[in-house]
Design a protein that fits this description.
mainly alpha, elongated, 6 helices, 162 residues, single chain
Length: 162
């Protein structure tokens, strides 16, 4: 649990608005490739992949060391002539479907895709059953004579200003 919290704090500190955003602009690293078209393709593919350290950022946005390594790996594969689909397939085979921001619909991810709708449906069913179970015609139980006397005494005492 501590590792998860430390990782989340690190991602927050390095993410937008964190410590990394306060670094002067002239000290930021230049792109690793001199070819802007290649860098654009790297970032396009990196936007489709989840940072395995931060888990809430793409590897294009993350400054984690693993994200930097994955961007470099994408860059190398692009220079070797691989397509975006081949690179995404490679990353999925190596790290699992979790690395994809849009995992494919298959039996193992069916709960991921349908789970929110199933929970919403179950909640609606429970709500309807609860509402139908209430009896709008039900009258409150009458007070016993002792309860009526006590209530009357309390009212009389509250009305008396002495």
């Amino acid at each position: 649990m501590r590792v998860v919290l430390l990782t989340m704090m690190l991602c927050w500190a390095l993410g937008p608005g964190g410590v990394a955003a306060q670094v002067p602009a002239d000290s930021k690293a230049a792109p690793l490739s001199a070819d802007p078209a290649l860098e654009a393709r790297v970032l396009k593919i990196a936007e489709e992949l989840r940072c395995l350290v931060c888990q809430n950022e793409t590897i294009a946005a993350s400054q984690a060391d693993l994200a930097k390594d994955l961007r470099q790996q994408i860059r190398e594969q692009l220079t070797q002539g691989r397509t975006q689909a081949q690179i995404l397939e490679f990353m999925s085979q190596r790290y699992g479907d979790f690395v994809l921001y849009r995992p494919p619909l298959q039996l193992s991810t069916l709960l991921l895709w349908g789970g929110p709708f199933v929970l919403l449906l179950l909640g609606a069913i429970v709500l309807v059953m609860h509402i139908r179970r209430r009896d709008p015609q039900a009258e409150p139980t009458p007070l016993t004579p002792a309860e009526l006397q006590r209530a009357q005494r309390l009212l009389d005492d509250a009305g008396d200003p002495t």
